[in-house]
Amino acid sequence: MAEKTPLVGAFLEAGRTLGHPTLDYNTPERLGFGYLQLTTTMGRRVSAAKAFLHFNKKRPNLHILIDTRATKVLIDNDTKTANGVEYVRNRMRQIVMARREVILSAGPIASPQLLMLSGVGPQEHLRSLGIPVFQNLPVGRTLYDHISFPGLIFTLNVTGVALLESRETTLNNWLQWIQFGDGPGAAAGGAEGLGYIKTPSSDEPERVPDIELLSIGGSLVSDGGPGASKAVRRGMMISDAVFDAAYGSIDNTDTWSAFLMLLHPKSVGYLELRDTNPFGYPRMYGNYLTDPRDVRTFIEGIRYVQALAETEPFQRLGARIHRARYPTCRKLKFDSDAYWECAVRTLTATLHHQIATCRMGPKGDPRAVVDPELRVHGIQRLRIVDSSIIPRTTCAHTHAPAVMIGEKAADMIKATWNQQYESYKGASHGNVDNLNYDNNDYEHYFLNKYMLDD
């Protein structure tokens, strides 16, 4: 378990002071703050692959190909049925055929890219690239993302209370993490607490928050100093010019911040192909902050964090707001709404929670790509199973919902083929490929024909 700094205790106490109880923030009844919950074991993050695949990789009906890139879903032009996948391995193009169905789970960026490369997507866009169209669907036309403002930083007059990479990366700390899975090395990028608030401008229903607060055991400046990685600022693609002007004076010092995440952006983006190269990247247009309501929500969230910092728990630590001097905002009065709008537009960062590029919805929904069974509209035996199918923004990070989608899809897929088995089991002998099986042989026949892999 990661050691916790005094800052998360101050965060939770400050939340209670302002009427937000400390609780399990997954509860649907109340808004509140809580300790960060993670999918970890022995202080190490556990991916879906580690949790689901690694323990099953020796199963005879599971074949995992590493260093392999899927390049196209093969679709029969006459029946509009997915019947295989084209992939490249060791620089060789290969094909694998599917007996029952193709399940695409490449994520909210690569899944729509593969669909469009396979001829499933917006008709005009595909034709402009010379891709034959099998099904005209709004693939990639809806893109939501959770964006964050990490620039609200408070200096402290107490030393040794925040995580500093230059201070924590000692041999003893690393050995403690490797051997026991605890200590500073087990901290999730310095994040310690999570809180949900509902700003005054929210038009969401009751008890639905519109801002998430991610309490950090430090801030953006915690990864600085001699020999430090500067991984957070680089991961958020903050230029040296902007960072040095805004935060250079407090780099590598004890600070606190709460990253603000916009839960329900009104701004909607889209994704499209750059070209027909499956090894290239699609074009993504986030359209962040194009709707003024998103800016308003961020500013109200900033005002709330300022109120947190004014409470007694943070004042015991001498919390004072840092007057960041962004090159783009120098003519604006510090702490004015105009200043904070400029700051948000200067320092917005994605948290990579993209969704809705293969949006789920019923037949007739003009924005839907898959139905409630995750089957692609108009294409037989093709499902999308990843976070790209989430139809609207969620009050959560997207890892747990993606795992849930996989679990639910597994149940639906098994149910589909169990129904097929029952229908064959109840059929007359003459309807089963005209083969004369005894009743006891139906299961053997069906499993060989439909359920078993080579």
What does this structure look like?
The structure is a single chain. By secondary structure, the chain is α+β, with helices and mostly antiparallel strands. It contains 13 helices and 19 strands. It has helices at 6-17, 48-53, 107-117, 123-128, 165-168, 171-180, 231-235, 240-247, 292-309, 312-315, 337-347, 399-425, 442-451; strands spanning 33-35, 40-41, 44-45, 68-76, 81-89, 92-97, 102-104, 120-121, 135-136, 147-149, 153-155, 191-197, 211-216, 255-262, 270-272, 283-285, 320-321, 349-350, 382-384. A hairpin with a 2-residue loop joins strand 2 (40-41) and strand 3. The longest helix has 27 residues, at 399-425. It is globular.
Secondary structure topology:
Layout: H1 6-17, E1 33-35, E2 40-41, E3 44-45, H2 48-53, E4 68-76, E5 81-89, E6 92-97, E7 102-104, H3 107-117, E8 120-121, H4 123-128, E9 135-136, E10 147-149, E11 153-155, H5 165-168, H6 171-180, E12 191-197, E13 211-216, H7 231-235, H8 240-247, E14 255-262, E15 270-272, E16 283-285, H9 292-309, H10 312-315, E17 320-321, H11 337-347, E18 349-350, E19 382-384, H12 399-425, H13 442-451
Parallel strand pairs: 7-19, 8-9
Antiparallel strand pairs: 1-12, 2-3, 4-5, 5-6, 10-14, 10-18, 11-14, 11-17, 12-13, 13-14, 15-16
Helix pairs in contact: 9-11, 12-13
